[in-house]
Design goal:
The complex is a heterodimer. By secondary structure, chain A is an all-alpha fold. Chain A is built from 14 helices and no strands. Chain B is built from 15 helices and no strands. The chains are: A mainly alpha, B mainly alpha.
């Protein structure tokens, strides 16, 4: 087991190094670079040359990359071109917001998706099944930013049930401990802040949960249907086991294996979706940061760190999922 | 598609044609004792021939098509796709006005907080520049189809190239190519597309198409490679190799056609995601900068977003069109996948 983990981690490092090299070379070889972004198009060549030199962009690309890797290993990702702050700080500020949003979305997607998928499979061909199939098809066909606007329009503009955007109301006095506003409120016992943060969280989380929810319902349904036809389920029923036991130990335990894999893969959808959702709700997380670093001049240091971070999270989560497989299903021996 | 390998049920077909002629020849030439045994065999074969005669030999493709036609949801998908393509083809005939023309009677009513709504001459009202919105929606089908199909096609061609090379050669070629796809798959789809667009100095319709295409390359490559690697060890490839068929011919004529079914199904599903991804890029301001172009993703992502408070119809109609078309491709693609899946074969 340990050897497997070590080998997968090594593979992960190789992938990340490859990605970092690609990103690094690509980003620097293109016109409209950071110097242009900082000085504007009408800057004099002398000033441009000066800044290029100051930022180190005049050196050979290999030297730049070596320096970049060297700094990276010491945890230094450089400074943001836009704000001048260290990249780690810029990302650190935005990171909790996205994690909070993604976690809430995942809780909704799993908490709703697994039971719904199970019920749909159990009532195959009936109204509930057809409704959930129709719903999931709609869920993967709708542009989620449009859904976001729709929800926002209905529930904030028309009904005034939820706040329109942001993470917390202005005027709410919240103490920043971890950056996770919901958690902070609990830690400092400022429960009104927790409530307010939760209130802001609901609509964005629902928006972001749409695609993972649809996918999880479909996979759960298909997988439970497969398991329902297995001999051991019939045997368990013939033995007269209680429904609850059959459902928990025989059907779900086996039927959820593919779902676990799917959940890992959906991290990708969450990261992608966060960019769109955060823009709709003005959320101020990593998605907003990506958008800002591209549209507000190409902020390369932030961009490359974000891309690497996204890849790291995605690959790491999938590694965890693969490993968890072995714990859930003793038949699987991870190779 | 007359390749014998993609006709796995070729056995019974042959038996239904051959046995009578073979046994007839036998009658004159063989000695009596064996002839009697042959007679029993012939009876059995004829029985078998009769039993399978009405079915005939069915190729996988024909069998899959038959099952596809019987699948109502897949047919709904096919209907949507057909309608979409027809609208795109006949857009100039269907549209009541020129999509680029700005009408005075519309522009004079344009203000900061109001855009003229439906009237008898302009059934869906105006767009933010005083053009006929219905005509733009109808013409939008063309550009949307163009972006979706081209992005999918480029992704498919590149992916098939990479996958076929990896699957055909295996070994170190496979290793290098697959590490490369791993790197690409390590980034979530939209993030990869965003990064790719961000790389271009100036976005255009082609950067969008290209970005969406590249995102799909590793998916097609992996799919094809897996299928081809599985075939390397299979009987029909072994047979071809034993017959002395050249390596290139085995790959092109025996392995690739077999692996392509799955790729085509994936391509149908990709058409739906490609259209959605293009719309997402437009929404993020990374899409086609030419906002005069009538394309649904662009209309939804730019005008729909900007004027949502003023006139939400500008978002509703393109969104609805995108949802229906994406749904159509998804239904068709899933129907196809079900049809070629041996598990669902009866």
């Amino acid at each position: 087991m340990l050897r497997v983990i070590v080998r997968r981690l090594l593979q992960l490092v190789v992938t990340l190094i490859g990605l970092s090299a690609l990103v690094f070379v690509w980003l620097r070889n293109l016109p409209g670079g950071p110097v242009e972004a900082l000085l504007g198009e009408r800057a004099t060549p002398e000033r441009r040359a000066l800044l290029t030199k100051a930022l180190g962009y005049d050196q050979p690309i290999l030297v730049q990359y070596a320096k970049f890797m060297q700094r990276l290993l010491t945890g230094d990702f450089g400074n943001s071109i836009r704000s001048g702050d260290p990249v780690t700080e810029v990302i650190g500020r935005a990171f909790p917001a996205t994690v909070e949003l993604a976690a809430a979305a995942m809780i909704i997607a799993i908490g709703l998706g697994v039971p719904l998928g199970y019920l749909a499979a159990r009532h195959r061909g009936r109204l509930l099944d057809n409704l959930s199939i129709g719903g999931t098809l709609l869920g993967i066909s709708i542009p989620i930013f449009f859904l976001g606007y729709l929800l926002k329009d209905v529930f904030t503009q028309n009904m005034h049930w939820f706040p329109p955007s942001g993470r917390i109301s202005t005027g709410v006095d919240n103490t920043d401990v971890t950056g996770f506003f919901v958690l902070d409120g609990l830690l400092t016992r400022e429960f009104d802040a927790t409530g307010d943060a939760l209130w802001h969280l609901i609509l964005p989380a629902i928006t972001l949960a749409t695609i993972p929810l649809a996918v999880i319902v479909r996979i759960t349904r298909a997988s439970v249907l497969d398991v329902l036809n297995e001999d051991y389920v019939r045997t368990a029923e013939a033995k007269g086991l209680r429904h609850k036991t059959i459902r928990g130990r025989h059907i779900l335990r086996n039927g959820l294996l593919p779902v676990v894999t799917t959940i890992g893969l959906q991290t990708g959808a969450l990261l992608s979706g966060a960019v769109l959702t955060e823009r709709v709700y003005n959320w101020g997380g990593l998605g907003t940061l990506i958008y800002d670093s591209i549209s507000g001049g190409r902020d390369y240091p932030v961009l490359q760190a974000l891309i690497l971070l996204a890849a790291l999270v995605f690959v790491l989560v999938n590694l965890l999922v693969d490993l968890s497989y072995a714990f859930i299903d003793p038949r699987v021996r991870v190779r | 598609m007359s390749d014998p390998i993609i006709q796995p049920m070729v056995g019974p077909q042959r038996e239904s044609v051959d046995p009578s002629s073979v046994t007839e020849k036998r009658e004159g030439t063989l000695p009596r004792g064996i002839d009697r045994l042959g007679e029993r065999k012939r009876a059995r074969l004829e029985q078998l021939a009769q039993a399978t005669a009405d079915q005939g030999g069915v190729s996988l493709v024909r069998d899959a098509l038959r099952r596809l036609r019987r699948n109502p949801t897949a047919m709904v998908g096919a209907g949507i796709v057909a309608l979409f393509v027809l609208v795109a083809i006949f857009a100039p005939l269907l549209a009541p006005h020129d999509p680029a023309q700005r009408f005075d009677e519309l522009t004079k009513n344009l203000t900061v907080d109001s855009i003229p709504g439906a009237s008898s001459e302009f059934p869906l009202g105006s767009d933010p520049l005083g053009r006929d919105f219905l005509s733009r929606m109808i013409h939008g089908s063309r550009q949307t189809l163009f972006v979706g199909v081209l992005a999918t096609l480029i992704g498919l061609i590149l992916g098939v190239l990479v996958g076929a090379l990896a699957g055909a050669f295996g070994g170190w070629v496979d290793n290098i190519l697959m590490r490369f796809t791993d790197v690409m798959l390590a980034l979530p789809a939209l993030l990869l597309a965003i990064s790719l667009v961000a790389l271009a100095s100036r976005s255009s319709q082609w950067t969008v198409i290209f970005a969406v295409a590249i995102v799909n390359v590793p998916i097609f490559a992996r799919l094809l490679r897996g299928s081809m690697l599985a075939q390397r060890e299979s009987d029909h490839v072994l047979a071809a190799r034993a017959l002395g068929v050249k390596r290139g011919a085995i790959v092109l004529r025996h392995m690739l056609p077999n692996a392509m079914t799955a790729v085509i199904v994936q391509a149908t599903l990709t058409l739906s995601t490609a259209i959605l991804e293009a719309a997402s890029l437009s929404f993020l301001g990374l899409g086609d900068p030419d906002i005069n172009r009538a394309e649904w993703g662009l209309m939804l992502g730019v005008d729909g977003q900007r004027y949502f408070e003023v006139r939400p119809e500008l978002a509703y109609f393109p969104a609805l069109a995108i949802i229906v078309v994406a749904l159509g491709f998804t239904l068709l693609g899933e129907g196809m996948r079900e049809a070629i899946d041996p598990k669902s074969r009866r």
